[in-house]
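[recover] target loaded
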């Protein structure tokens, strides 16, 4: 009985496999003419680089807000780098000199350079100080045109940050004839134009503020 089982079992397995369609198909499959590949496919590459007609704006877009003013000024100074020092020894994102830092109550340059929060506080404090020094000039000259540029409060404060409040006073009161340049040769008139029209109205003028 066991001998017949040994012969019969493989036959049953083969019969089951054939019934489910497992087998060899020797019939040649025809490929439609439209799908046949008769040679290498030619790949076309663009002959010219894509040129964007509109400039890219890095998010977030801050517009003419106070934060927009800060970031625009920081980009001009250091490309927004908190941890940089330039060839003249100016420090941080907004490029403060040692003398200005000490005037505002900061005496440790290393700590300042490695503390972004402190740098933001120093920037705002110095802005309040410059706004106090230039309060009369802001009231007198905002809206007037000097050297073809309308004077705005933000333009005055940006120029004061970059060239000193005293030099901005001289520029305004001389109607633009005393146009002092910074260490890189950029004049006050450039700063007044570059940073005009930002909203810095909420900055409170303070006399001799300190951190």
């Amino acid at each position: 009985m066991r001998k017949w089982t040994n012969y019969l079992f493989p036959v049953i397995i083969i019969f089951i496999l054939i019934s489910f369609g497992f087998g060899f198909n020797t019939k040649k499959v025809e490929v439609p003419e439209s799908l046949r590949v008769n040679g290498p496919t030619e790949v076309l590459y663009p002959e010219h680089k894509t040129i964007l007609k509109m400039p890219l704006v890095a998010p977030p877009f801050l517009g003419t807000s106070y934060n927009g003013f800060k970031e625009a000024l920081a980009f001009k100074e250091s490309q927004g780098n908190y941890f940089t020092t330039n060839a003249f020894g100016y420090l941080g994102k907004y490029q403060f000199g040692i003398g200005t830092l000490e005037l505002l109550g900061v005496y440790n340059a290393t700590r300042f350079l490695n503390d972004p929060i402190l740098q933001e506080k120093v920037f705002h404090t110095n802005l309040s100080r410059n706004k106090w020094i230039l309060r009369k000039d802001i009231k007198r000259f905002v809206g007037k045109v000097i050297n073809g540029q309308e004077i705005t409060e933000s333009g005055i404060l940006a120029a004061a940050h970059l060239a000193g409040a005293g030099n901005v006073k001289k520029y305004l009161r001389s109607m633009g004839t005393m146009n002092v340049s910074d260490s890189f040769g950029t004049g006050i008139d450039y700063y007044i134009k570059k940073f005009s029209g930002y909203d810095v109205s909420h900055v409170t003028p303070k006399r001799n503020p300190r951190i």
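[recover] notes: The longest strand covers residues 145-146.
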